Known about the structure:
Blueprint: E1 2-3, E2 16-18, E3 26-35, H1 42-56, E4 60-65, E5 68-69, E6 73-77, E7 82-86, E8 90-91, E9 93-101, H2 104-112
Parallel strand pairs: 2-4
Antiparallel strand pairs: 1-3, 3-9, 4-9, 5-8, 6-7
Amino acid sequence: VQSVAQQSYPPSSVVETLRAAPSRPYIVIARIHGQAPAGTPPAQVLAAIEHKAAALGADAVIVQDRSQQTAAALQFNPAGGSYQNTRAQIIPVYDATAIRWTAASDAKSAAEQ
């Protein structure tokens, strides 16, 4: 987590997940990176990001999916002396921007600073 805001906010009870920047005025309060081992459900990583954003007082997170796929492989099993196929898996990686809704005049003054 990289804090961007100069002030702190009370925790939020609900954090909205967005895939693109909203048209509604907002300020950026933090940048959050979430990553987990291959095979971890993406929803689990997104929930962790939302939980952290809520603790920071964010109203929403703008999420960018940077997930990667591992290649299928053939592995030797020395215990049985045979080969096993391992299937391709997704490594969930997300970069998120935690934001807080503002009035249009607040967003303009924050942008000028």
